[in-house]
Design a protein that fits this description.
The structure holds 3 protein chains of 3 kinds. By secondary structure, chain A is mainly α. Chain A contains 11 helices and 2 strands. In chain A, helix 1 packs across helix 9 (223-237). Classes of the chains: A mainly alpha, B mainly alpha, C alpha/beta.
Chain lengths: 299, 361, 410
């Protein structure tokens, strides 16, 4: 009896980690853009959806297998992010932050419209690259697909971390984000670094989309709820902290499941409000999130 | 610009607006009057949001939630919730006339705003924006969960209730017979103009100066004796009260509320309206409100499609196309009107002043 | 029951007679939206937003009207169908419906989609005496409350009736079944559950767990895991296509093999094929569902005249649309019924006349509905479609079994 209850509990934890991995990837994209451009990109989810549709078109209409389509889509998404920054974001970058936010809202609406226009609103399926097999680990059923999702997410995070910490481009990226003026003085091409940040964020979004589509299904609104969860994850972890985004995403995924299942009064209806309340309480104690740097004010 | 001149142009402009507002129904169909009633409603919400975001520098992505609180206050005071099975302390008998619920809705939403303003003090910038966003996200589920109190997902219907001043039968106001739509129009705009005036009075005085000081530099504001806690919470309260009044009128105009009538998109569009109208200014907000109400309709209409090249026109009727147009227009507006419509007005005012001085000089 | 039907008849007759008389005698006092060359209908549809997939219903209906117009229309009148987007937001449905009535002056509101979206405008349409014809929603209230709302009439089988059929089926075929239910947290999901429980009454089977989800949630993985742990041997999926597909996928990933009941909203073959994950999903084989429409992907209808005309109409009047999307068939079925209503209205159709006809339909052969399913209304019967065919998912397609199920009037 106890063993069965424990297996149920672990089942919820595992499924929470699988969903949380996706929130983490998108939260990471938000964090990267916030670090480089200082804004929250509301169109992050829609950009990811668009890229996932590209992957779907390649596999279903052009007969590609998953991984080549994955790589091609990652390449496309990078270019898409860079071009978006150069064409749409750069002209409004100076001045009020809200202008950029509104532009990203405009992008959200336009990209969503484009996806509906091009591929219609009906659901589609993107096949899972990991198959549909499952493993039974002491009564807890773990699907190979979920393991793959988490593994790819972690792999991408490590790659990004290596890029930021150990490469010249990474150094320039960090410099451009921390202090654009000084970076410019030492010869960093700041605007291109910002564009690069948008490209990387778009890649993360695309990966999140392609990993999550096989289980949640592909439709034009696929990433909208996930974006809201990614916001919450990024805020919980600290909007400037990549590590925070990952921890925040996984925590949120597990927390939502456990609240929904084990707190009877809450149930599935209230689990999101309660999770948001928990985050609000965390913020009241730590106003910059779990891993965020406290804001330094200069007079 | 000469402050006296600003005040004079301001007064003249406001007087013109009042006259225009009261004459407009003479020129438009009664259906259009109803659409413009919604413009008045959005204007009220934008005034409130701009006090918070444009003047005090606190971004809110959750003003739709305060509108929902106002809307539900009005709906429940009119229709009551005993019909859903609510008993005891939380039971509301209903039966209140619609117009009397409007100030109560503003008050209730204002209190919620004050209450939220307190914890919000700890948060700044993006964290605050997303905390307010969380309210807008969470509210629909909460409304659904407490079904007996709120009517749940099926919502509260107001059409046909005797508490509604106008319905199918026209209403007699000061010897004039007004049909439902015209009545809505005058109701919403009368309140909007009064609240416009109040906002102007608040913002030009000591409170307004304190708000702006908080926005421009919190540290400098504190060092010159402005209490951050006091003014930030106050801004939240006033702003939420405005949203509550807007929500109340929204419920009366729509004659129906349910959680889906105040979606997350509403909160986002209110922010869009403020930025399009111009942060830190009042006059442009009228255009911001018109933008919220009419751009989606315009993007859907025949007018746009007929001006596009042939190969696109064929597909502009398909789902999704209006959204593409809407999004692109929004982005272009941000490109070409960096300070919103209000900024355009200010520039026009400056040109006028220069022209005047150069002629007199 | 009988008293209620008498009341309905009385209310309908008196309401309609008052409106119908002038129209019957004088052509000059015609209702809005009708001229000698056209009839204007209008409806709201979610062209954008979370329910955009349902936009196909309106598109299918419009294609059918266009095809009828190309052949000269009904009594030389063209049927003009204005579709306004409401983004599935009831507040926008209200504004859009008022626009259709007050500005576009439509003759009737036709097939607006969504339960809350239609409830929000029902009072308004009834008090202004504008027909709310063939509401695209399966809520029970459309038929049940016909006395109170004589200007409103539904179309499809009600969700409660559908749930009842599943309950009766389980009672008949299984002993002591333990049923787990995944339901959408709104009237649609709850109505299905109510019906299911009613159908199970006095049998040994019962609902052992019911987990709901919000339409705004990203996934239902946690709910499916919890339902599995309830030890149920039947899973009833009362969810929209996106979440129904997820339920199949997650059940399979949890190596859970219950008998699955899938509601008709998500029962189309194209949805099932998506859920089957290219044949790799083992939970899907043997799933059952109730259906009333002809499935456009089913090879059985290859030479069926109804589906042949469906494909040709789609090809001509809905270029680029996905022909295998069953919602188009729904749209055509309801448009077909509307056209035949207008055909029987004579030279001077009135709004009241339209409603009177809609309350006395006998249409045994709608070419887009499954054979044997009739559209029927009459004294005390305000539910146009009340029959359905159970089908079982076998080797990649639906196979019907047993006779037609007929629900009593819910």
């Amino acid at each position: 009896m106890v063993a069965a209850a424990f297996a149920d509990f672990m089942q919820q934890v595992v499924s929470g980690l699988a969903s949380g991995g996706v929130y983490a990837a998108l939260a990471l994209a938000l964090v990267i853009i916030h670090r480089s451009t200082g804004v929250i990109n509301f169109s992050q989810g829609e950009m990811a959806t668009l890229c996932t549709y590209i992957a779907w078109t390649l596999t279903v209409n052009h007969g590609w297998s998953y991984w080549p389509a994955f790589v091609a889509t990652v390449g496309f998404s990078f270019l898409f992010g860079v071009v978006t920054h150069r064409v749409v974001i750069r002209p409004v970058e100076r001045g009020n932050v809200l202008r950029v936010v509104i532009v990203t809202i405009g992008l959200l609406i336009a990209i969503n419209g484009f996806v509906v226009w091009q591929w219609s609103g009906e659901p589609q399926a993107l096949a899972s690259p990991f198959g549909t097999d499952t493993l039974d680990i002491g009564g807890v059923i773990v699907s190979v697909g979920d393991i793959g999702t988490i593994a790819v997410t972690i792999g991408i995070v490590i790659l990004l971390w290596l890029l930021f910490q150990f490469t010249k481009v990474g150094l320039a990226l960090r410099a451009a984000a921390v202090n654009p003026n000084e970076a410019r003085l030492v010869g960093v091409r700041v605007t291109w670094m910002l564009a690069l940040g948008w490209g990387l964020a778009a890649v993360l979004g695309a990966v999140a989309g392609m990993l999550t589509a096989p289980s949640v299904g592909l439709d034009p609104q696929m990433m909208q709820p996930i974006l809201i969860y990614a916001f919450a994850a990024a805020i919980l972890g600290g909007i400037d902290s990549p590590l925070g985004a990952v921890v925040g995403g996984l925590t949120l995924g597990v927390m939502l499941n456990l609240i929904g299942v084990y707190v009877d009064f809450v149930g599935a209806e209230l689990k999101l409000p309660v999770a948001l309340l928990v985050i609000l309480v965390v913020l009241l104690v730590k106003p910059s999130g779990l891993f965020g740097r406290p804001e330094v004010k200069r007079v | 610009m000469n402050p006296n001149l600003t005040r004079v142009t301001g007064f003249v402009g406001f007087a013109l607006l009042v006259v225009l507002v009261f004459l407009l129904p003479e020129w438009i169909s009664t259906f259009r009057a109803q659409q413009f009633a919604y413009v008045g409603i959005y204007l009220i919400a934008l005034l409130g949001l701009n006090i918070l975001t444009g003047y005090t520098g606190q971004i809110s992505l959750g003003h739709g939630a305060f509108m929902a609180i106002g809307g539900y206050t009005t709906a429940l005071l009119m229709a009551g919730n005993e019909q859903f099975g609510q008993e005891g302390l939380l039971g509301i008998g209903g039966g209140m006339k619609d117009v009397w619920t409007i100030p109560i809705a503003g008050l209730v939403a204002g209190l919620f705003g004050l209450a939220f303003g307190l914890p919000a003090l700890r948060l700044s910038g993006l964290y605050l924006a997303l905390a307010t966003f969380a309210i807008a996200v969470a509210l629909p589920s909460v409304v659904k969960r407490f079904e007996e109190f709120s009517g749940g997902g099926s919502g509260v219907n107001l059409f046909g209730l005797p508490e509604l001043t106008a319905g199918i039968i026209p209403v007699d106001i000061a010897g004039r017979e007004l049909v439902f739509n015209d009545w809505l129009y005058y109701l919403c705009w009368s309140i909007a103009l009064v609240l416009f005036g109040i906002a102007w009075l608040i913002l030009r005085g000591r409170t307004g100066r304190a708000f702006r000081a908080v926005r421009d530099s919190e540290t400098a504001a504190v060092s010159s004796g402005v209490s951050l806690a006091h003014y930030k919470t106050l801004a939240f309260g006033i702003s939420a009260a405005y949203a509550g009044v807007a929500g109340s009128l929204f419920a009366i105009a729509t004659t129906f509320v349910n959680p889906d009538t105040f979606p997350i998109a509403l909160s986002i569009f209110l922010l869009v309206g403020v930025v399009v109208g111009g942060l830190g200014g009042l006059s442009g907000l009228v255009v911001g409100a018109i933008f919220i109400q009419f751009l989606p309709l315009w993007a859907q209409g025949e007018g746009v499609a007929s001006r596009l090249p042939g190969f696109i026109v064929d597909r502009t009727k398909e789902p999704g196309a209006p959204a593409i147009i809407y999004g692109i227009v929004l982005i272009l507006l941000m490109f070409f009107l960096p300070n919103g419509v209000g900024g355009l007005f200010r520039r026009a005012g400056q040109t006028l002043t220069r022209w005047r001085y150069s002629r007199s000089g | 029951m009988r008293r209620q039907s008498a009341l309905v008849a009385l209310a309908v007759v008196s309401a309609l007679a008052l409106g119908a008389l002038p129209g019957a005698f004088a052509g000059s006092t015609a209702d809005p939206g009708i001229t000698s060359t056209s009839i204007v209908l209008g409806g709201t549809s979610p062209l954008t937003g979370p329910a955009a997939a349902y936009a196909s219903v309106a598109r299918g209906a419009k294609a059918y009207f266009d095809s009828v117009n190309a052949k000269g229309g009904v009594a030389k009148r063209k049927l003009e169908y204005k579709i306004v987007d409401d983004a599935y937001n009831p507040a926008q449905s209200v504004q859009a419906t008022r626009q259709l009535v007050e500005q576009d002056k439509v003759f009737a509101i036709f097939n607006s989609l969504g339960t809350e979206q239609n409830i929000a405008v029902r009072e308004y349409l009834n008090q202004t005496k504008v027909p709310q014809l063939f509401v695209a929603s399966g809520a029970t209230t459309w038929g049940r409350d016909a006395v109170k709302y004589p200007w409103t009439i539904g179309f499809q089988p009600s969700y409660q009736a559908e749930g009842l059929v599943y309950g009766q089926y389980v009672s008949k075929t299984m002993k002591k079944a333990k049923i787990a239910v995944l339901l959408q947290n709104d009237d649609y999901g709850k109505d299905l559950l109510v019906g299911l429980k009613r159908g199970l009454a006095r049998s040994g089977s019962k609902v052992v767990a019911a987990e709901s989800y919000e339409v705004t949630a990203p996934d239902v993985q946690s709910q499916v895991a919890k339902l599995k742990s309830s030890g149920a041997n039947v899973l009833a999926i009362f969810a929209t296509p996106k979440f129904a597909i997820q339920a199949f996928v997650y059940a399979n990933r949890l190596a859970w093999r219950p008998r699955i009941i899938n509601n008709s909203v998500s029962g189309a073959s194209n949805i099932m094929l998506l859920a089957s994950e290219g044949g790799k999903n083992k939970s899907i084989e043997g799933a059952i569902s109730l259906n009333f429409l002809k499935d456009p992907t089913d090879p059985k209808w290859k030479n069926d005249p109804g589906m042949k005309s469906y494909r040709s109409v789609m090809g001509k009047y809905a270029k680029g649309a996905n022909v295998s999307d069953v919602y188009h068939v729904y749209g055509m079925a309801v448009a077909f019924e509307t056209v035949s209503l207008f055909k029987r209205l004579g030279a001077n159709p009135t709004r009241a006349g339209l409603l009177a006809r809609a309350r006395s339909i006998t249409s045994p052969a709608n070419p887009f509905l499954l054979p044997g399913i009739a559209v029927r209304t009459g004294k005390g019967d305000n539910f146009p479609i009340q029959q359905g065919q159970l089908q079982r998912w076998t080797k990649g397609k639906w196979a019907p079994f047993g006779g037609l199920w007929e629900s009593d009037r819910l």
